[in-house]
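Quick one, T. Sequence first:
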Amino acid sequence: MRLDPHTPVVIGGGVVSNRTNAGAPVREPIGLLADAARLAAEDADAAPGAPAGPDAVTTARSAPVLTNRHRDPAGLTMAALGVSGVRSELWLGGGEVCGTMLARTASDLVAGAGGVTLLMVGEAWYSKVAARRGRGPALPRVDDEASPAPHQVIGGVIDFVDPAEQAVGLADPVELYPLLEQALRIASGRTPAEHRAWLGELWAGFSAVASTNPWAWDRHPHPAEEIATPSPANRLVGSPYTKLMVSNEQVDQGAALLVCSVSEAERLGVPRDRWVFPWLTVEGAAPPLTARPDLARSALAAVVGRTLWAASGLAPDDVGPVDLYSCFPSAVQQQAAGYGLSLDRPLTVTGGMRFAGGPWNGYPMHGLARMVQALRAQPDAAGLCSANGGGVTKLAATVLSARPPAHTFSHLRPDEELAALPRRGAVRPDPAGSLDGPIETWTVMHDRTGAPTHGFVAVVPDDDHRCWGRVEHPDDLAAMDGDEELAGRRVRISDEGRARLVGRAATRPPAGPLEDVGRVPSVEPTVLRAVEAALSATVVASTRVHGGDVAAAFRLDLHDGRRVFAKTHPDPPAGFFVTEASGLSWLRDAATVAVPEVLAVGDDPAHLVLEWVEEGPA
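Structure tokens:
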């Protein structure tokens, strides 16, 4: 098959891990970017004499280098490589920016752009922190005058914190993601102790992958118990997360990709077995946590996932290697659920941001470079790489393969569907008053000794609003750090945002938006996908409700404002729900009593969806 000459292709990838923690000399980040670019050129394995090294680059694109905050890291890198006449660009954003850069590069090539584009990231944060703490030499700095400004700055700083969150001091990802994790735990039905052990198992799988990755910063295999258990070497950060569960930005690493058109790859003599094709990228954005209907579920990931599979013609189980942005376990869980991926399968090709390394917003370039190698080794497979900015606020998911795509590369943004998703509003206590309500989720932050310093709670006084509180009383922090179930316990928030626990701990959350979610299973991702496909809508919130007999019953809120009743069962007899649906349909057709309409039913996965009927007076 003759390929369209404008088809985009990744021809080389390079990764550098300068282990200054093991005695390697300290280097400026620009040197790491330059090394990664050289390695990417070597990886392309162009024909002898062809200008496929750095000299072939016509456009250089870089994410910001936070270590030394250079004005034009791409231009400085090309100067370090001794190459002039290259267009340099600085791409701003969050952790999604690497996915955006690749998608834009591929789109430019489809539109007829020529030449070779170098995409790169790099940080020397380990060395910077070591110098600041007196544990290492001063970090060298390249003179910005070698390239004082890029040709273009693209994008902007990501805004992912709501004013209501800022009002109580809630702003950093290390504070936001534990709140998502607690919501996921409550939805799972696990106790705090059970969930910590479960997180240890999940992250031990990532550590095992890192132990086989020659570029991983931490290649020591960490067992689940070590990851889950707080200790002097593994302190609590933001409960329930220990240090071994959170992204490690203290690394000295660089990564780069070389991307061009098929015609350019042929001109340069790059062997066909080096080519990896970006098939498509889907990008989208979500509001801050305050506005999300359900903190245990990412409606953004669900929309991105459904768009991705529909456009690619693939199903989640068709994908081979996967690398999900893995700053915190909750980010992985919410992406996996939205994309329809099982948590039992490998979800990283690097080892993730704790073990392979989390060089700020540059991590996805490392995942992409490693994915290129994985797909060359599996030429018939398709792979998925994701990039995430904020608090699962911006996602860019890309499908790649060594197989040529069946369709032209597409960069999709389901903005209209995302804009139609329902949102909560922020509510604050009345001036000179207070607000009481049930706890939806919480976390406690800890200092470098592991001592608790402060905490945050979210309260949902009704179906439409969310309120945040800051907790500082030692007794409340101790309770929030313990193994007692606090979901649904009442909290009082002052007009200044100070929160205190009130009343006794509940054995389960009270009736209302959190009804019975404390110790019950959540809706399985396979069931959610089936429901969304049948109803052509995204599930934005799921709430356990009474009823269902031997099945589990849920209220599902859809992005278009509809509300439905769903029943699931982990192992029903054959035809279990289909038989019930037939009986309900017969009764409804008889028109003698009011019977809810059957909206969807299936055996694999087992589910029954009915129209929602509001509860009436007894």
